[in-house]
Amino acid sequence: MNRTFLQYVTALKMEEAKLRLRHSRSRVQDVARDLGYEDVVYFAKLFRRATGQSPSEYKNGLRMNG
Fold first, then answer.
1. What is the pLDDT of residue 65?
2. Which of 2, 11, 19, 20 sits at a 20 to 30 Å CA gap from 58?
């Protein structure tokens, strides 16, 4: 699978976001900013594209299932 450098970096950031949402009490806004996204809406769009869920849905789903 060929990916651009930007796609590769974005995929790494989304994996890091999943880890942070799973293992910390950080707010979605804080995770986004820590990963270099000043626009939380854009971060959420990328996260949904990568996971099929919004960051909040992902975090809340983990809480309900864990």
1. 61
2. 2
Other beta carbons within 10 Å of 53: 15
Which pLDDT band holds residue 5 (cuts at 50, 70, 90)? very high
CB 13 within 8 A of CB 35: yes
Structural domain range at position 33: 27-66
Q: Which amino acid is at 53?
A: Q
Euclidean distance between CA atoms 5 and 57, whole angstroms? 28
Cα atoms in the 13 Å half-sphere on the side-chain side of 21: 26
Domain-located, residue 36: yes
Encode pLDDT of 26-47 as tens digits: 999 999 999 999 999 999 999 9
